[in-house]
Amino acid sequence: MKELLDHLCQLARLELPSGEREEFARKFADLVGFVDAIKELHDEGREVPLQVPKERMDTAADEPRDRPCEGEVPRSYAAGHIGDLEENGA
Amino acid sequence: MKELLTLTAHELMAKFASGEVAPEEFYALQMRFARHIEPKVRSFLTLAEDGIAPLEATARDGALRGVPVSIKDLLTTTDFPTTAGSRILEGYAPPYDATAVRLLREAGNCFTGKTNLDEFGMGSSTENSAFFATHNPWDLARVPGGSSGGSAASVAALQSVVSLGTDTGGSVRQPAGFCGVVGFLPTYGFISRNGLIAFASSLDHVGLLARDVTDIALMMNTVGRPDRLDATSQAPADADYLAEMNDRESVAGCTVGVINQLMDPALVSEDVLVACEIAIRVLENAGCAVKRVDLAGVERLLPCYYILCPAEASSNLARYDGIRYGAGFPADVSRTLQEHYRAVRSPGFGEEVRRRILLGTYVLSAGYTEAYYNQARRVRHAIAEGISEMFEDVDFLFLPTSPTTAFGLGERIGDPVKMYAADICTVTANLTSMPAISLPGGLSAEGMPVGIQFTAPQKHDGRLLALARLYEEHAGTGYCIPPLVAEELAEFEE
Fold first, then answer.
1. Which residues of chain B make contact with A75, given a CB cutoff of 8 A?
2. Domain residue limits at B449
3. Helices A21-35 and A2-12: angle between axes, nearest 10 degrees
């Protein structure tokens, strides 16, 4: 559970306070057990109703990124420059 | 004059129309009493100033006007901060009004303030507010329900006449039931979600709280309008909910289905069951046919809801990065973006919000999506089909609002699974987008309010209000003033 929580925290950009980790992990495990009931149902044959176009349904692998984004907007950038971006075709 | 505080909105509007009292005069009285009782109940995160400019009531006939309204702090307002009950939005001043707020403002209503809530609407007790817990006006040692606990408490404690709330899994109806007022969840898209801070977008609704059904119809006539700023808006442009509520022909001889599985003594407390059985007799006396029906898959409801809801929440709450507004703004440029995100989000979100974000991240992560998220979507679809089939045999469904009356402050906060169980009777309406209403169903043996609930097929909101009004007329269990509030009102010096 600890490794799973660490991975999820990385994906969600969160950190858990060290003094609360154990208690949080215990409650989180209870919750996972609670929603696990959905796996016991046998509805796999039923089609999943689409909410977004099918071609966009495939999900990428979850890879926490801990490096600066490429092409990052300059630190001095301000909202007032939006027009400039539009003019440049951004 | 202080007796005016106990009136409903439509009774008050009659007083305004006759010139017996001016809206501005009543508003000043309302705010003085709201402040008087606030230290005990703690309904508000922000209370309005006492004075207002003369009101220009421009609403059409049959709509709410000139009446003080409290607003859940999950709806944006230009004249009050909007926090969502979260440290991450502390002090946030939105640049626009939510559409429902704007419509009330344009109709000439005035606002008493922003009410307390579970952070981002995540909770069933209002104890998850980042600021403080609200108390139930019937018993200050108990919760008012949640997440619109501040809204329900403000209406029950005479701090406002009506309130705007939000309901993602029962957040208007459950606190309405706990506080002894009326709570209405319209069909999805019947009140614009523009300006409602997103929690779980496919389940989020703006909902209404009032002291009787007529006030709900009046509010719907004001806020139940189509809105081009909400892509899911589907409200009819010309609906008159007051007229539909008064159309008794629409419910003459109707059939009400009682869901057996949600009247199970293993699930529902004896006090609630007794109140429900009395309510069923009231329906029969009012000329309704009552039929016991079975809802397949009740055991799936909560796991389904608690997969879809955190999944959507984890996505919606990714926007709180401390870059453009809220906590962490302006950004500390000595940190990397990732460091900044974590530094802002970790202390900015409370424990329950962190838990739901992580659960949502888990059920959406690669390798688990099929087992959890897609399975939950299948279940949601199956539940909706089951409910549709039920509505081929019955006109309305009846069920308790909550399995118990209000529980004690601190009683469930340490056990999330136990807290989630409080939602078993309310999540179905959100999962299926149907309208639902919670009505006062009398008091328990301990003197706490019990809520009863009706639901109707999608887009039958007016007809649902007609049934609710029929029940209200025959039941004699409508809103009554909590004893503590009556004492405070007696002591209150105008």
1. 333
2. 2-229+236-251+436-491
3. 90
CA distance B405 to B448: 6
Residue of B nearest to A45 (CA): B378
Per residue in B74-132, pLDDT (tens digit) is 999 999 999 999 999 988 889 999 999 999 999 989 999 999 999 999 999 999 999 99
CB-based contact B417 A39, cutoff 8 Å:
no
Is the whole model's pTM more than 0.95, yes or no?
A: no
d(CA B433, CA B444) in angstroms, rounded, equals 30
Residues of B with active-site annotation: 72, 147, 171
How many domains are contained in chain B? Answer: 1
All domains of chain A in start order, with CATH:
1-40 (1.10.20)
**Domain with B75 in it: what CATH number?**
3.90.1300.10
**Contacting B residues, span 403-442, partner chain A, CB-CB under 8 Å:** 415-417, 420
For residues B309 and B123, is the Cβ–Cβ distance under 8 A?
no
Tell me the β-bridge partners of B46. Answer: B114
User: Are the beta carbons of B283 and B251 closer than 8 angstroms?
Assistant: no
pLDDT in tens, B271-312: 999 999 999 999 999 999 999 999 988 999 999 999 999 999
Residue B273 lies in a domain: no
Structure confidence at residue A50 as a pLDDT band (50, 70, 90)? low
Report the residue from A4, A35, A49 with minimal CB separation from B372: A35
Task: Name every chain B residue with its beta carbon within 8 A of the beta carbon of A11.
Answer: 361, 365
Of residues A72 and A50, more confidence is placed in: A50
Helix axes B461-475, B270-285, angle to 10 degrees: 100
Q: Which of A3, A13, A41, A75 to mutate to test the interface with B (most CBs of B within 10 A)?
A: A13
Mode of pairing for the β-strands spanning B396-400 and B449-455? antiparallel
Q: Is B440 helix (H, G, I), strand (E, B) or coil?
A: strand
- Residue B275: how many other CB atoms lie within 10 Å: 24
* CA atoms of B140 and B136, how far apart (whole Å): 5
- Contact between residue B429 and residue B460 where contact means Cβ atoms under 8 Å apart: no
How far apart, in whole angstroms, are the C-alpha atoms of residue B401 and residue B269?
12
For residue B388, how far is the Cα from the chain centroid?
24
ipTM value: 0.88
C-alpha distance from residue B317 to each of B70, B200, B307, B423, B482 (Å): 25, 9, 15, 22, 37
Judged by DSSP in three states, A64 sits in coil
- Token pair, residue B152, equals 């329900």
| Residue B347 belongs to some domain of the structure | no
In a domain, B322, yes or no: no
CB within 8 Å of B425: residues ≥ 6 apart = B170, B262, B399, B400, B401, B402, B403, B453
Quick one: pLDDT band at residue A45, thresholds 50, 70, 90?
Answer: low
- Angle between helical axes of B99-106 and B213-223 (0-180°, round to 10): 100
The DSSP H or E segment spanning B164 is strand B162-167
Q: Is residue B364 part of a domain?
A: no
